[in-house]
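Chain A, query sequence.
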Amino acid sequence: MQGFNKYYPPDFDPQKHGSLNAYRGKHALGDRARKIDQGILIVRFELPFNIWCGTCNNHIGMGVRYNAEKKKVGNYYSTPIYSFRCKCHLCDGWFEIQTDPKNTRYVVVSGARQKEEDWDPEENGGFAVHETDPNQGPVDPLAALEKSTDAQNHMNNVQIPRLEALQNLSDHYSSDPYSHSLRVRKRFREQKKIDKAREEADERIKSSYGLPETLALTAEDEESKGKAKKEWEQARQAASERENAKRRRIGAAVAVVPSASSFKLTLSARSTQSRTSGGSVGDTASALRAKILGNTARQSVSLGGRGRMKPPDVKGLVKRI
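Chain A, predicted structure.
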């Protein structure tokens, strides 16, 4: 554990020395302030772009860090201009880089040359923020409107979807697993209640109509309702067609059955013919009985429940014969 207590020697006088650094003759920044009397402070500086060393002509990549000598060399209005002097790690050469507040960038002053990799805002859906050309003419309102429109379209079509994708990815990797589990279990419980209520309704329907337990009922929705209604209409039309055909058959059968008066005339004619012919009385009676019974049965089947006719008195007819 780091100690925060400080040792104060017996001869330390706060009125005289002020602080321990002054008592020991050291600066508060330590070795970084060894050239503080010249206005130089040692800082950690990172290259903002790629350069080639002017001494060894080697390439030094962007992001390489050096212990640079930081010094104030001027002002741009009220903004100070700082110089960073670094020693190449591949040779003994020195190069110097300064800040440029006017153009918000860094520039190589000496000892190296910068690799030109300027970012073009117009190629990336933007436009230059700082216009420092003194010979530039008046701003065209239509051109400014076109630039702003292009920037807005680029933001809506490229930047916003990209930011949303990054936000979703961040939420996916940094979200709380417990909250995900809680949300999933809550949804599962709600779905389980719905399924249980549907099963109970299906059981009531099966018990009411005597349906088998293994029969799977379709979930009630608009598609199933339309399909069931269509099948019901088709079945109703088929039943109506069968009923009409049955009625036509019954009407045709009723038209073929002879009436009671014609039936009596036929019997009297046959009885007269049998007397004149002198045939056997027993054979004639048996044939007549069979004929009468057949006609009666056929008439009963064809008419159904529409009122049955009383069969003729076969015994009287036989006796009269």
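Residues 84 and 170 are 37 Å apart (CA to CA). The radius of gyration is 58 Å.
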